[in-house]
């Protein structure tokens, strides 16, 4: 890069002693010159052959070999031919605070960046790491910025994440805006987006709409799955009542025990017993008037027949009759009506399978925890305690 002699009068700016991996620094300043570093700092390093010019006229001596080995962009700038052979190599890094440039140079030498510098210059370090292609510093900056998002800063960080191609940080900011949109839309950053970046505003509003639609869809799916799981439990409870009997309802050849306590195996057992009792004594059904509760019981019996695999020996009433009605000899109209019914049957069966699978995974997890506890010696400790007590 072309040499740029400095004649501006800038007050001395002290550079940190650990800028070059904890090498001692001795600052030499002049009232008529920009702050520099004396060569004593490099007694264990080669002579610096390049200077980094930061905001405020701060000049940071550096080594082109180290800069080029870390950043391919800096390597390209260093290898660029100069107009004058004897001109000094100067790399200008302007537009960001000089302290951020110092932290950037420190990272190039040490591959370290303190939490204090990330908190103070995280946005500038992300921009510098993207422009000069330093992926390790970029990962550190994006991770730290994602943990420090606030209502006031999230819009600025979101814009920077898009410009710096940081998808993880961009998505984190989008989620933060969606969760706190009522407060974010009152900030100056949001007003700036509305006036100068309508495409980003559209992306944010679309993401919020898709997030809300996804939440509503998940709530609907969970609600349907809960309903199908309750239906499957009702089928098991129906078999339980018709085969074993429970409280007030039982098979014709088994006398129900009225003094028995309420069933603890199924939450729907008592309600289903009342429904069966109503179905057996309802006069509206027998008179052909129609009854909503009887219709519900009729549908439960039909659903059981569709799920049952042992209709020949099943003790649930009308199970075999419903199997015969659903035979292929039925007409086309009934086949069309049965399409939705078959879908209902599949969802009830799949809901039970998913519930059983999650329960199995939970049991396996508990078993693994028990193995870990035993491996740590707690089980043997208890045995030893018992033995001592018995002895």
Shape: rod-shaped
- Summing up helix and strand content along with how strands pair, one would put the structural category as mainly alpha
Counted by DSSP, the helix tally is 16
User: Hey, roughly how much beta strand do the residues contain?
Assistant: under 5%
- Indicate the mean pLDDT: 76
How many strands, which pairing sense, and closed or not: the largest β-sheet? 3 strands, mixed
Low-confidence stretches: 1-13, 22-43, 372-391
Cross-sheet strand order for the largest sheet: 4-3-5
Question: What is the succession of H and E elements?
Answer: EEEEHHEHHHHHHHHHHHHHH
Ends distance: 87 Å
Radius of gyration: 38 Å
Query: Percentage of helical residues?
Result: 55-70%
Number of strands: 5
Describe this structure in words.
With 391 residues, the protein is mainly alpha-helical. It is 61% helix and 4% strand. The protein contains 16 helices and five strands. It has helices at 64-70, 72-79, 98-110, 115-131, 135-147, 154-163, 167-179, 181-184, 188-196, 198-243, 269-281, 283-286, 292-307, 319-325, 332-375, 378-390; strands spanning 27-28, 36-37, 50-53, 59-62, 90-92. The strands form two sheets. The protein has a three-stranded mixed beta sheet. The protein has a two-stranded antiparallel sheet with strand order 1-2. α3 (98-110) packs across α4, α10 (198-243) crosses α13 (292-307) and α10 (198-243) packs across α15 (332-375). The longest helix has 46 residues, at 198-243. The radius of gyration is 38 Å and the shape is rod-shaped. The chain starts with 26 loop residues before the first strand and ends with a helix. The model is unreliable at 1-13, 22-43 and 372-391 (pLDDT under 50).
């Amino acid at each position: 890069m072309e040499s740029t002699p400095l004649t501006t009068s800038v007050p001395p700016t002290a550079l940190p002693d650990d800028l070059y991996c904890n090498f001692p620094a001795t600052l030499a300043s002049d009232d008529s010159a920009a702050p520099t570093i004396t060569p004593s700092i490099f007694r264990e390093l080669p002579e610096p052959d390049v200077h980094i010019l930061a905001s405020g006229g701060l000049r940071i001596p550096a080594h082109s070999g180290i800069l080029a080995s870390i950043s391919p962009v800096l390597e390209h700038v260093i290898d660029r031919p100069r107009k004058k052979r004897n001109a000094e190599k100067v790399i200008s890094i302007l537009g960001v605070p000089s302290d951020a440039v110092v932290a950037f140079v420190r990272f190039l030498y040490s591959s370290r960046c303190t939490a204090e510098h990330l908190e103070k210059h995280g946005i500038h370090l992300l921009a510098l790491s993207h422009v000069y292609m330093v992926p390790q510093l970029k990962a550190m900056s994006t991770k730290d910025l994602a943990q420090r998002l606030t209502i006031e800063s999230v819009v600025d960080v979101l814009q920077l994440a898009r410009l710096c191609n940081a998808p993880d940080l961009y998505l984190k900011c989008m989620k933060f805006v969606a969760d706190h949109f009522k407060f974010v839309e009152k900030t100056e950053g949001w007003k700036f987006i509305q006036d100068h970046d309508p495409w980003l505003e559209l992306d944010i509003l679309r993401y919020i709409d898709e997030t809300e639609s996804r939440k509503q869809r998940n709530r609907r799916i969970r609600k349907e799955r809960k309903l199908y799981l309750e239906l499957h439990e009702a089928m098991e409870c129906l078999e339980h009542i018709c085969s074993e009997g429970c409280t007030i309802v039982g098979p014709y050849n088994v006398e129900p025990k009225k003094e028995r306590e309420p069933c603890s195996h199924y939450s729907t057992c008592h309600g289903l017993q009342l429904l069966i009792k109503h179905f057996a004594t309802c006069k509206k059904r027998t008179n052909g008037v129609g009854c909503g509760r009887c219709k519900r019981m009729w549908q439960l019996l039909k659903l059981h027949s569709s799920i049952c695999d042992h209709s020949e020996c099943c003790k649930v009433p009308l199970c075999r009759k419903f199997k015969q009605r659903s035979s292929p000899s039925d007409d086309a109209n009934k086949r069309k009506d049965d399409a939705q019914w078959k879908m209902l049957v599949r969802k009830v069966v799949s809901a039970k399978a998913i519930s059983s699978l999650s329960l199995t995974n939970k049991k396996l997890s508990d078993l693994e925890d028990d193995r870990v506890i035993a491996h740590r010696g707690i089980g043997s400790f208890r045995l030893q305690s018992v033995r001592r007590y018995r002895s």
